[in-house]
Design goal:
CATH superfamily of the largest domain: Phosphoenolpyruvate-binding domains
CATH class of the largest domain: Alpha Beta
Number of helices: 22
Distance between the termini: 18 Å
Number of strands: 17
Radius of gyration: 24 Å
Strand content: 5-15%
Number of domains: 3
CATH architecture of the largest domain: Alpha-Beta Barrel
Strand order of the largest sheet: 1-2-9-8-4-5-6-7-3
């Protein structure tokens, strides 16, 4: 499928809506200089000077980031600015920097290569992951490395623009997003990136329209081109005509009116018109995101990705370190629940002791790794239990495919409980346990798995990928990644019905949960909870509060009777426009 639509004088590049808003103005093509690093030998008597170059570059990089942090705190608040604290932590990581210095001395290599090669080990693990959010974190790590290299070489940082512009770039690091905002920025458009990127999150906080995932924008645009950016529909229009500008202006007015409607919705319950309550929670990976999620109306954390604490580490965190993190998250979310997903690592996914596999998508990952590495698993289970004293913590096992895996994981959880009991440490003796339904085998066996646990959480990203046999990161077959394929919607209904037959709660935590087009259908098949990225919470809640459960059930019946994704999308779009006529999304 071609993502570029051509007309006589204008053409449209479709991407991913990352930050809402509509803007028009001249393009500024920002080509970020990525340093080329080569391995160069040094003499033994040059080692001390080379390490000093690294120390000076690190100090300068930290000083720069602290300035960015201070500016971000002033402009965005301390919670959004935490991103830069995480980058500073990489610079000040004594183990990582100690390893780099040892390599300089032992291998007699230049500082640039030692930094790049050492950090690249973690970057490659992140990029090999099938999860888009891991790719985004890899780009954040790139930014830190590039900053160090630039400062080793004493190169200047560009950040000054003349006049109002729409920034067009291959990618934007968090620091780029904040620094550029000191100029008169109208919008951001990038070839790479997704809605979970820190640049996207910062753009939303800064209220600057952004479209990401455009693939080829930098190849088709030059500085000075007149652009229109639609941060709602995820479109970038090059040389828009008068008719297009008129349509965009009308859309901007509609969205402004809709956003004003959403202003007071965060404090309201996610109840249908006939009083069916849907638990609406958020997917997060850092404790600092909880405050923003709560402001958006989140009732809790439906997915906390615990493996994010492994980034840049040479070893797994200790039980005490994990317990402190999890307790902080549980306290911040109280009295609402937090679902801690145990480490989803393995294969080429980020892990301190990861191993290369030819096909990591079908390899040693998730619960498979933890059941083989019971020492690591028990540390994490004890840490999660220690954070459960306020009775709002739940534990969730990823990538489950057999009942035996669940039984073994539960046995280890029981062992962790016994360990804490012997140590006299308190925990929730009735902690709720669940599994993620992400592979077809788990979907087929949903009722049997439900008999073993308190809840099921459907990870639609992987489930769709495996059901459709489509790598969603492969552009050549991207159109075949169809969340509304008849096989997918029928499988989702089967999972929910199977769970309810065993009286267990069923939630959805994949991207489909945050897709407005899917909301009525998911409510109609009986989903108990939707866990989404925080920025879309108000829109999803608005839809839930505009429908009746009985009507949603009829919609779900119709959806499951249709034969193509095109039919399903068209039908659901018509339902949304009928039930929520004020919603301005192009569904």
């Amino acid at each position: 499928m071609d993502d570029t639509t051509h007309t006589t004088d204008e053409f449209v590049i479709k991407g991913i809506a990352a930050a809402p808003g509509i803007a028009m103005g001249p393009a500024y093509l920002y080509t970020k200089q990525v340093p080329r690093v080569e391995r160069k030998p040094i003499l033994p008597d040059e080692v001390e000077a080379e390490i000093e170059r690294l120390n000076a570059a690190n100090a300068r990089s930290e000083k720069e980031l602290r300035k960015v942090l201070a500016f971000a705190e002033q402009k965005l608040g301390s919670d959004s600015a935490k991103i830069f604290e995480a980058q500073i932590m990489i610079l000040t990581d004594a183990i990582l920097m100690g390893t780099i210095k040892k390599r300089i001395a032992a291998e007699l290599i230049n500082a640039e290569f030692a930094v790049t090669d050492e950090v690249n080990k973690y970057r490659q693990m992140m990029l090999a992951s099938p999860e888009e959010y891991m790719h985004e974190r890899a780009r954040d790590v790139d930014d830190v490395v590039n900053r160090i290299i630039r400062n080793i070489r004493d190169q200047k940082l560009f950040s000054k623009l003349e006049g109002a512009s729409i920034i067009v770039s291959e990618t934007l690091a968090p620091a780029d997003t904040v620094i550029f905002s000191r100029n008169q920025i109208l919008g951001y458009a990038t070839d790479l990136g997704g809605v979970t990127s820190h640049a996207a999150l910062l753009s939303r906080s800064l209220k600057i329209p952004a479209v990401v995932g455009l693939h080829s924008a930098t190849k088709q645009i030059k500085t000075g081109d007149f652009l229109a950016i639609d941060g709602y529909a995820g479109a970038l229009i090059i040389n828009p005509g008068a008719d297009t500008l008129k349509i965009l202006q009308a859309r901007a007015e509609r969205f402004l009116a809709f956003e004003q409607q959403l202003a007071g919705i965060a404090a309201l319950p996610a109840d249908t018109l006939d009083k069916k309550h849907i638990e609406l929670s958020s997917n997060i990976e850092f404790a600092e995101e909880i405050v923003f999620a709560q402001l958006q109306g989140s009732e809790g954390v439906g997915l906390f990705r615990t493996e994010m604490q492994l980034i840049g580490r040479a070893e797994y965190p200790s039980e005490d370190e994990q317990a402190a993190l999890y307790a902080g998250v549980a306290e911040a979310a109280f009295p609402h629940p937090v679902l801690f997903r145990t480490f989803d690592v393995g294969g080429d996914k980020i892990a301190p002791d990861g191993q290369h596999e030819e096909n990591p998508f079908l390899g040693w990952r998730g619960i498979r790794v933890m059941l083989d590495r019971t020492d690591i698993f028990l540390d994490q289970l004890r840490a999660i239990l220690r954070a459960s004293t306020r009775h709002n913590v739940r534990v969730m096992f990823p990538m489950v495919s057999t009942v035996t895996e669940v039984q073994r994981a539960k046995a280890l959880l029981k062992q962790a409980m016994e360990d804490l009991k012997r140590r006299g440490i308190k925990y929730d003796t009735r902690i709720r346990v669940g599994v993620m339904i992400e592979v077809p085998a788990a979907a087929v066996m949903a009722e049997q798995l439900a008999a073993e646990v308190h809840f099921l959480s459907i990870g639609t990203n992987d489930l769709v990928q495996y059901l459709m046999a489509v790598d969603r990161g492969n552009d050549a077959i991207a159109p075949l990644f169809q969340p509304f394929h008849p096989a997918v919607v029928r499988t989702l209904r089967h999972i929910v019905e199977a769970g309810h037959r065993k009286n267990v709660w069923v939630g959805v935590c994949g991207e489909m949960a945050g897709d407005p087009l899917a909301t009525v259908f998911l409510v109609g098949i009986g989903v108990d909870e939707l866990s989404v990225i925080p920025p879309v919470l108000p829109e999803i809640k608005k839809i839930i509060r505009s429908i009746k459960l009985k009507d949603a059930k009829r919609v779900a019946d119709k959806v499951c009777a249709l034969h193509t994704e095109r039919e399903i999308r068209a039908f659901l779009s018509s339902i949304i426009k009928n039930k929520v006529p004020e919603i301005p999304f192009d569904l």
